[in-house]
Each structure stands twice: as C-alpha cells, then as structure tokens.
Amino acid sequence: MIATLARGEGPGPVSAVAPLGVAELRIVTATPPSVSEDTPGVVVWRDRHRVPVAFGLDAGAYSWLVVRGVGAYRFPRSPADPNLVVVEVTPEPGVSFEDLDDYFLRTVMPVAVQPHGFEALHASAVAFEGIGVVVFCADSRTGKSTLAYALAERGARQVADDFVVFDPRTASAFPVPFAPRLRRASAESLGAPRRGSVRATSRGWSRRLDEALPIAAVFLLERGAPETQLQRVSGAEVLGRLLTDAFVDSINDPARKRTLVEAYLRLKAAAPVFRLSFRDGLEELPRVCEHVENWASDRALEAATRS
Fold first, then answer.
1. What is the distance between the terminal CA atoms of the chain, rounded to a whole angstrom?
2. pLDDT bucket at 301, cuts 50 / 70 / 90
3. I need a surface site. Which of 34, 190, 213, 248 has the fewest CB within 10 A?
4. How confident is the model over 187-208, as pLDDT tens digits?
5. What's the number of CA atoms in the CB half-sphere (13 Å) around residue 84?
6. Do the Cβ atoms of 84 and 106 come closer than 8 Å?
7. What pairing do the DSSP bridges indicate for beta strands 71-76 and 84-85?
8. How far is the C-alpha of 197 from the C-alpha of 193, rounded, in Å?
9. What is the residue-wise DSSP string for the chain?
10. How far apart, in whole angstroms, are the C-alpha atoms of residue 290 and residue 189?
11. Displacement of CA 213 from its chain's centroid (Å)
C-alpha cells in the first residue's frame, strides 16, 4: 500500500506530477546503533522535562530514530527510489503495531521525507477554503493544538497537529494522518479526547495524499501578552524562529545545513509571517480564533477584489 504526496509547481493546489509515495511501515529485525546523549553526531529529542525520549543518528546506509520504549526506526540516507519513502522499524518487546504506527506518523514521518526534498515544521495547521493553510508555530504548551482544534470546531479544516510537511519548492503543505492531542484543560473545555487517549493511525487511510495546499501564512504564537493582537513580522527573527521549529534529520552535514536554510528562506519569502500574541486562559480562546478568522476573511476579500 502506498500513499502519494504530489509534487509540482505553482503557488496554488498542485497536481500530481512526480508522486512521492510513502510505503506501509515495515517491521524488521535489525540491530540499531548504540546511542546516548554523548554519542558523536546524535540529535536528541526531549520531553518538556528535558528527559531524552528519542535519538537520531546517521549510521552506515541508514538514518535512525531510536524512540525509547517503542522501537528503532530507520530509512535509507540515499533512497534507492527518490519517489518512495521506505521506513522500517525494529520494535521493542510487547509494543503493539498501533503504537508503532502512531510514532511513525507523529515522529518519524517528518524526518523520513527530508531525503526526498521535503521539510517539516513542528506546528499545527488549519486550512481555509480558497485561501490555503495557516500554520501555527509555538513553544510546547503554548496552545497551538488547542487553537487549531478550536478553529476546526468553528468551521475551518484542521490539517495538522504535531507537524506540517511542506515542499519548499512550491510552499505547499501536504496533510498526513494525525490525531488531535489536547491536554486535560483544553480537552475538557472543548469536549475533545485527551492526548493520552488518542493515536494517529494509517488504518482506514486511503493512502493517497495527492492534495497539496498552498501555505497562506505562518503564525508565531506567544501566550501571556497583556492583550490579544496580530502583528506582521519580518527579518532575521523570522528565519531564526522557523528554523527553531524545524524537524531536523541531521545538522552535522554542511550540505544539509545549507539545504535546510535555503528551504526556510523560500518559505519565508512565499508566506507572510505574523506574531499572534494573546492573554493566558482558555476564556481568551474565542477572541484568538476571531483574530485568525478576521485575517482569513480579509485575505479572501483581497483575493476576490483582485480577481
């Protein structure tokens, strides 16, 4: 079974030209590299308590992502087929396929697409009809998942929760399967499942993602402001912030560093970036949603006027 991520040209929805397939997750028996925080060249992913939860490392012909308590995922550093993403996993004992699939979709996918020319932002996102995708970047626990879910409840389409895959050549986002993951207060307020009770899954998925959506804007979220406001931002600050939110497969290769920076420079040039600052408290959420919706309405009106 293969899912397709369409590639193409132009600022709008992209038709399938040279599809990038994502093969079904394969379970294999392989010996992963020994990794720790002190391993040369390792990239460490940490939880909010700064505890290491996953390690990324290039070893031999593969890039590895070793997730504690789950398994060791690997994919070729130089894909044999540039149009097919192949990921294999050696699970730890007793881990279900559902958990393996969840981590594949939430954690490994944004890294595995990078050798194929795609990038991924640690972000949530919604799409507005006729406008495109609005991407929400923020530090952990700022509320990007909550905002995306709330906007979806108000009529937008949520297209991402943990990360946004995009093609820097076209500034197009490619939705992949996800499950909204809200913390207790947000879940209770919005009547949504709590983050520990949901999994991202490829089951029931058509395995065809030929939908490419233009990225209309990137919103940098900042909680704890004295008032809610939306401001356009630009300059070096923007690039630094976007790179901070990048999923990075390897930062040890100078060529990869150059490719990464070039990709985010293209994104910065293609989509306006705004800072959305807001007060603490879920009672402020409707006002925050209104700021995003008003921006989208203005953007739609501008598009209609031009046409």
1. 41
2. confident
3. 34
4. 999 999 887 788 999 887 766 5
5. 9
6. no
7. unpaired
8. 6
9. -EEEE----SSS----SS-EEEEPPEE----PPP--TTSTT-EEEE-TT--EEEEEEEETTEEEEEETTTEEEEEESS-SSTTEE--EEEEPTT--HHHHHHHIIIIIHHHHTGGGT-EEES-EEEEETTTEEEEEE--TTSSHHHHHHHHHHTT-EEEESS-EEEETTTTEE--------B-HHHHHHHT--BGGG-----TT--S-B---EEEEEEEEEEES-SS-EEEEE-SHHHHHHHHHTB--S-SS-HHHHHHHHHHHHHHHHHS-EEEEEE-SSGGGHHHHHHHHHHHHHHHHHHHHHH-
10. 18
11. 14
Closest CA to 61 of 33, 40, 21: 33
Q: Are 256 and 250 in contact (CB under 8 A)?
A: yes
Q: Which residue has the tokens 């209770």?
A: 188
Amino acid sitting at position 142: T
- 2-306 fold: Rossmann fold (3.40.50)
Distance (Å, whole) CA 104 – CA 99: 8
Torsion on CA atoms 267, 272, 273, 275, rounded to nearest 10: -170
- For helices 144-153 and 285-306, angle between their N-to-C axes, nearest 10 degrees: 70
Contacts of 178 (CB under 8 A, 6+ apart): 105, 106, 160, 161, 162, 200
Query: What is the model's pTM?
Result: 0.89
